[in-house]
Amino acid sequence: MIGRDKICAVAAAADARSMWAQVRRARGVTRTIELRLDWLSDDAEIAKFLARLRAGQRANGMRATFIATCRRRKAGGKFTGTIAEQLVHLAEAIRCGCDWYDLEIETSSACPPELLDVLLGEGRRIASAHFFRRTPKNLKRVAVDLARTRPDAIKVAAYCDSLAESIDLLRLAPGRKNIVAVPMGDVALPARVLALRGGSALAYAPMENATAPGQVTLDVMKHLYRADLLRRKTRVYGVIGAPIGHSLSPILQNTGLRARKMDAVFLPFLVRDLRDFLQAVDPLGISGFSVTIPHKQTILRRLDDCDPMAAAIGAVNTVVVRGGGKLYGYNTDYVGVLRALERRIPLRGSRTLIFGAGGAARAVAFALAESGAVVCICARRMKQAEALARVVGGEAVERPRLRREFFDAIVNATPVGMYPHSDRAPLCAEELNCRLVFDLIYRPRSTKLLQIASRRGIETVSGIEMFVAQGTAQWEIWTGERAPESAMRRAVLRALRNEEKMAAR
Q1: DSSP assignment of 443-464, as one string?
Q2: Is 48 a catalytic residue?
Q3: DSSP label at 162?
Q4: Cα(252)–Cα(281) distance, rounded to whole angstroms?
Q5: What's the CA gap between 463 and 360, in Å, rounded?
Q6: What structural domains and CATH numbers belong to the chain?
Q7: Span 481-488, average pLDDT
Q8: What is the mean pLDDT of residues 447-464?
Q9: Which pTM value belongs to this model?
């Protein structure tokens, strides 16, 4: 066993003082810490940091497992010195209290084993190989090559373009002792979180600075995803989309799972290739997933069956994986629309404009039509607007008419104004002739569109209302229990407030 805690914090900074501060913070979360000596700006800073480490060990005994890494540039690190200088730094790190050291194959293959024994024999070695551009075709051969020198552990880290490659990498670990499998890249993020569940000896998470693509911070790995508590029986849920980094669904759904003490986790899946994701459902043990842009309509062709309302809408945002891997689809967006609007205006008989004609717009249109509202559709592509209007018995409205017509409510069902393009608005002030504006976008809370409406004295509704309502409905479909809505709402609002504070700095 490499460390007492399987989530390994990564301390990486340009100066000794900052790096030591990271180590101190990491100790409050985990007792396994990788020290990226190669990130320190020069030999003097490395010496300062190691002196601080030795002093800390002598003063109070850090009671942590430290892994020293001084990766050369040739292997994807930052160290520019010679192999000899690299080994000297690692040897000093061992003398200062590091139990383990990570030595990449580029260095170990260039050194006589006797030299490594003399310089680093007192430490335990992780023999590592890193592939930052692509996953090698023969991962087992890589593992065999690393094991030839009989290290205490081996690590294979590879950039994965697909979930299929991520799964292949994780298959190195089960049933073997002290093998670390590290899928890298944004597509591989869920596999990185699930690595410990799959048998990897460690999962790495940076304190501040990402040292590899697709990493999530120690706080997120430990407290949001609870990666060290995941087991084979842990149910896996997720959200699929592209982009997906902006989504607050993991915060919403994991808060609910934690509040109800469920053995389950919810992960974000960056999915550009829907087939790749669906082929990963069984290997990753996925029990259900949320669907967002751009897959809400295309997922329909991949389902085994579908809720009648979702079929009528022609878009699915919720999928349950049933026995035999059968996929059953729902749409909870319309629930969110109704809960957000019916508290503010009487929907029956109201004249409501929907701007947009995609999957989200279809859910809004069906919800409003079912409630007895007069539905008007305006979109960049008028043919799509006309088609949707026909389906719900509504009216297609060309954009120039917006400046001279009045509506009880206007709903933005486009992604225009979504983070990180928060400075954009789908409609201008002169087009907002209504009593209420509802923007389905929830990030940021106050979109450019809502700001424009507010300045005109128009009542506004943030997409957070729909987001929480549709998300809690999903949660209940997946789990069969009543969602802790208040806790889930508070968590999302707290995350948005923190994000706004960071943006204001």
Answers
A1: SSSS-HHHHHHHHTT-EEE-TH
A2: no
A3: S
A4: 22
A5: 12
A6: 7-232 (3.20.20.70), 241-331+469-504 (3.40.50.10860), 345-462 (3.40.50.720)
A7: 97
A8: 97
A9: 0.92
